[in-house]
Amino acid sequence: MTDQGFGKLVLIGAGKMGGAMLDGWLDKGCGARVIEVVDPGASDELKVLAKAGRITVSVAIGADGVGAGDVLVLAVKPQIMAAALAPVTKVAHAGVLVISVAAGTSLKSFEDAFGKETAIIRAMPNLPASIGLGMTVAVGNAGVGEDERALATGLLEAVGKVAWIQDEAQMDAVTALSGSGPAYVFHMIEAMAKAGVAEGLAPDLALELATETVRGAGVLAATSDLAPGTLRENVTSPGGTTQAALDVLMGEGRLEKLMMEAVTAAAKRSRELGS
What pLDDT does 28 receive? Predict the structure, then answer.
């Protein structure tokens, strides 16, 4: 978390993603003087935090609004973004930093709402952010300078790693690979477990083996200095059991082709939803 101080941090929407970010800010220390959560359906957890004086909770941004030195984080569903923006833009002043974690809403949409001179960042976290292991990719408009980028990086790192891109058009590929990616892995765990059951394992044991294998392999890939291909080769003995399985998965590029088709389909749908 960045130690750069700033004014008020306003979070619009505290659902799964907004709530995960809020937890990260509170756990790791946030440079804001005030954290205000705007959520008409505030949960009991939010009310407890408010009662303890750790945040303030309201159904709308106060009359003082947001402006210079403040950060506005938009974490509402894309389908209600337009409705959420209407009252916010009325109380937004020059100098506010806007960060959106809503899928499919372009930088231009926010520039139309807040003005092109406003520093605006579009970020795409994925589901593991809910346990602090997310991967977030961000892109900023022309109003975002080094200070705004550093501040946003610190806030987004509260839920995992952060990477930046220069071309917003790449967000469709990011969505297809990283945003949707956890679902692919969950399905792989399901498929591995079913295969284990088919070979005679008890369902609970098969699911545990599949889940822990994926978790361990993921951590190893993330922490090792070796490339995934090298790790795969290291666990594959010529003529052994792993080789027999990989002959099926890798034969004629089977798994690679299937993953290409899946990511391409997701990216295509992302572009359709954003148009």
Answer: 82
